[in-house]
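B., you asked whether I could sanity-check this one before it goes into the benchmark set. Here's the sequence:
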Amino acid sequence: MLNSLSGRFLVLTTVFVMLAEVLIFVPSIARFREDYLLTRLERAQIASLVLLADDMLETELEAELLENAGVFNVVLRRDAVRQLMLSSPIPQPIRSTYDLRMASPLVLVSDAMRRLVTPENQIIRVIGAPVREAGLLIEVTMETAPLRMAMIDYGVRILLLSAVISVFTAVLLFVAVRIFLVKPIKGVVGYMKRYATAPEDARGIIQPSAGVTELREAEEALLQLQTELTHALKQKQRLAQLGEAVAKVSHDLRNILTSAQLFTDRIEMSEDPLVRRLAPKLVNSMTRAVSLCEGTLAFGRAEEPAPTLTMIKLCDVIEDLIEAEQMASGSGQVEIVSEVPPDLMLRADPEQLYRIVMNLVRNAGQAIAATKSNGTVTISAREDTEAWWLSISDTGPGLPKRAQENLFTPFQGGARKGGSGLGLAIAAELARGHGGSVTLRQTGAEGTVFDVCLPKGDGTI
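And here's what the prediction gave me:
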């Protein structure tokens, strides 16, 4: 129980209340001592007034007055004359003198604590002002043992009362914490456990109801997290189902393409110059298609192969891509321009780099084609001391706001109607495999620019 929030709160509350009572106890015991001494002075003054009324008091009556006042003798100063009013034998010399007329709170506290820790019975002189201005001062001598016992008795009663108050307060706070904090927190924990057991069950999604502001904020944050996680899990489930279907299609398509590769080998033997020129392009396209199918199957098994990094001449990859894309489109509506330095070498997987640039170029071409007007896609490259940079820019209409908010998210980042949004997601994933990234530099009515970063070092830029 002590390890729980309410249990620790109970203990801490008790300790803090007791600490507060101790801080109150010190001035309280000092005040009690002052009141005790002032009471003795007042009693002594009353006893001296009896003597003033009758100068001929019997010795027995005088002793009784002193005993009732709790003092040994009384000195009263009236009209600048110091007069011994009542007296009796003092058992030992006077050890200390205390003047209560001008004592500061600090002095009173110090004297009280010193008296409390001094068990020895001593004779002290106490000086004070008479009540109702019945003289200049009154002075008595008394012993300290009764004073100390009265202070101890008062202190014990104060401590017992403090303990009762602290325990009672702690119990009330314990109940309040259980009702207003622990119970709502357990409710949040229960929702979390229920949701973890069955994320697809909508009943496990929390409904914020706490009245405490901080708990309400925690419930609302949990609601947002559960909603987003549920959406992500559903999306992942759909992607898993789609991936399974794609893997099956890729498996059969790979077999078909492998057979087609055998026929392309025969086409290369043709004497037709046009066929001989186009045959290598067809062979490369078939090889990439087979490689893509094999990669899709590996991805479906959660075994996406790491890129095979080699130093390649970038312009060869880009020229091959431009020729293949222009032959595929055939309309001439989109012009693809290369501004890649002819001698630029970089380290990458040639097949995966081809797919990265192909997806970006194809997305740009589709955006231009959707406007039913001519446009240009430009591929440029540069390098610095840390990375190689490829830029793919177009003169298209720019990305819509929804596409910008969901870039690189499969099935959500499509910029055109009917698009799947897979192109950017694939390009970004392949770039991450190289330790790099694909980022959107700018987009708008003047066109869109994507940057591909491939690091030269260990992948950190």
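One thing to flag: Residues 213-267 form the longest helix (55 residues). Otherwise nothing jumped out at me.
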